[in-house]
Please model this.
Amino acid sequence: MSNLNRRGSGNGYATAVGGFTFRSYGNHTMSDAPKILTIKEVACFLRVHRATISRLVGAGALPSIAVGSRRLVLEADLLTFIENRRSLAANSPKEG
Model:
């Protein structure tokens, strides 16, 4: 038995995967949605403490969105942040 099932649902369809149901209408699907990361996931990815990410978010250096009491970061914003940091490091004067 497959854990991927599609069934009609009005104007779109629902896809059930592992107990979760994702709905699609028209040309929009869940795969079109931007990847959203928690503060913990961002911290793990960058290999820093969660408090470091919270400080960056609080200072406005790393854009985030608030959902209730949670702060979430779009993957695209994280990648832009990393690229900006790389550019800054490459253009900074070298010590030595």
